[in-house]
Amino acid sequence: DQQVKQNSPSLSVQEGRISILNCDYTNSMFDYFLWYKKYPAEGPTFLISISSIKDKNEDGRFTVFLNKSAKHLSLHIVPSQPGDSAVYFCAASGLTFGEGTQLTVNP
Amino acid sequence: GAVVSQHPSWVICKSGTSVKIECRSLDFQATTMFWYRQFPKQSLMLMATSNEGSKATYEQGVEKDKFLINHASLTLSTLTVTSAHPEDSSFYICSAYSQRGRETQYFGPGTRLLVL
Predict the structure, then answer these.
(1) Do A43 and B42 touch (CB under 8 A)?
(2) How far apart are CA A51 and CA A94, in angstroms?
(3) B102 touches chain A (CB under 8 A)
(4) pLDDT greater than 60 at residue B53
(5) A45 CA to chain B: closest CA distance, Å?
(6) A15-49: per-residue pLDDT in tens?
(7) Element spanning A84, H or E
(8) B8 — phi, psi (to 5°)?
(9) Any chain B CB within 8 A of the CB of A57?
(10) B58 Cβ partners below 8 Å, 6+ apart?
(11) Average pLDDT in the B7-18 region?
């Protein structure tokens, strides 16, 4: 039973545009969420987190939105840069990961 | 700089041998560390949660006698793959839970294990 789902395995965006990565979850007891970025053969890098008591958290080019009623969160990257190309994982309460979305930012 | 280190980063071993992987939190005390495994093109799979001074909690389907976890101090957890077989070849990642300022996890760089 996949409690955290990232339904888009891949996303391709032009440099300078906005990248929107989506994540859905099923367990309303999750109390915080995190987004990680992962390059091949490396450990994931923490990007940004959001507590379930908030609906938005912003850090530089990265903003995470949480819609608890829809059990949905999204990561916005703007403007997107080629160096953002990586696999992005969302995780609920740090322990349950989505399948990841491969983001490719084209120059 | 890196706050969690793993050693070794690469290991190649013969089938039947045991391999120990170390995970260290470098500048903070981690009461909880997590061990993950990643198969190619798949998400990270949580193997076990390791709390300092107590037995690790293993996820369903993970053999505790196969993957021995020790968390003897607040800065060190070890994963020992016992009697490794080729199917154990994978990328193993640890993370350390931190509550410094905000709740987050810091991940190690990972250890690539290849069992011949």
Answers:
(1) no
(2) 11
(3) yes
(4) yes
(5) 7
(6) 999 999 999 999 888 888 889 898 876 677 778 88
(7) none
(8) -85, 170
(9) no
(10) B47, B48, B64, B67
(11) 95
